[in-house]
Design a protein that fits this description.
Elements: H1 13-20, E1 46-50, H2 55-60, H3 67-78, E2 86-90, E3 97-100, E4 103-106, H4 111-128, E5 132-136, H5 138-145, H6 151-154, E6 166-170, H7 173-177, H8 182-203
Parallel strand pairs: 1-2, 1-5, 5-6
Antiparallel strand pairs: 3-4
Helix pairs in contact: 3-8
Length: 205
């Protein structure tokens, strides 16, 4: 189970996005509306990796356009980072979901599904050639840095990776939205912004 056979012979961001739509490297394509490739330009210095598309992203065909994406936009602005200069993508390119009361609810992708999709992520990173790659959440952290990384323990710390000169992990912005109280959401948001400021500082090194 792998996306490897579906990669284009001569990869570019355009050819990768097109080829991704035909991917049958794992079963997730069967229930998704479409594959959701990364958005941004080649040469972007900062590359952010989330877990997988959500319902809004699956319908729009773009990453981070729903509530978590709006939270990310706000945090990037507060950290002094222009999102238009950032490449944003996900570790898994198809939406994994389960029906519940007429809605499509997010289901966490399995390790096999993450591994199957990794060739797309690796190709995107190689084509963008970022200076800093940041994992947003545990699934992205495992895909980028391996099982030894724990977001709760290692967030905001420089992480070694062959994918870019600098690596880092932080929370997924959706976790801020799941906090129970306004005070908790403010606290988690502030910590997230601080992590993004650390990523911005790595860009200046």
């Amino acid at each position: 189970m792998s996306a490897e056979p579906f990669l284009p012979e001569h990869p570019s961001l355009t050819s990768v996005r097109k080829a991704m739509q035909a991917c049958e490297g794992c079963p997730l394509y069967r229930r998704a509306t479409q594959a959701v490739p990364g958005v941004g330009r080649a040469g972007a210095a900062l590359l952010l990796v989330g877990e997988q598309p959500g319902n809004d992203e699956d319908l729009a065909g773009k990453p981070f356009v729903g509530p978590a994406g709006k939270r990310l936009d706000r945090a990037l602005e507060e950290a002094g980072i222009d999102r238009t200069t950032v490449f944003v993508t996900n570790a898994v390119k198809h939406f994994k979901w389960a029906p519940a009361e007429g809605k499509r609810l997010h289901k966490k992708p399995s390790a096999r599904e993450v591994n199957a999709c990794r060739p797309w992520l690796t190709a995107e990173i190689a084509l963008v050639h970022p200076q800093v790659v940041v994992a947003l959440g545990a699934t992205a952290a495992r895909s980028l840095f391996g099982n030894q990384v724990r977001v709760t323990r290692d967030r905001g710390e420089p992480l070694e990776t062959s994918l870019a000169p600098h690596g880092m992990a932080t929370i997924h912005p959706s976790s801020i939205l799941r906090q129970r109280t306004d005070a908790d959401r403010r606290r988690e948001h502030a910590a997230f912004v601080e992590d993004l400021r650390i990523a911005a500082a790595l860009l200046r090194q």
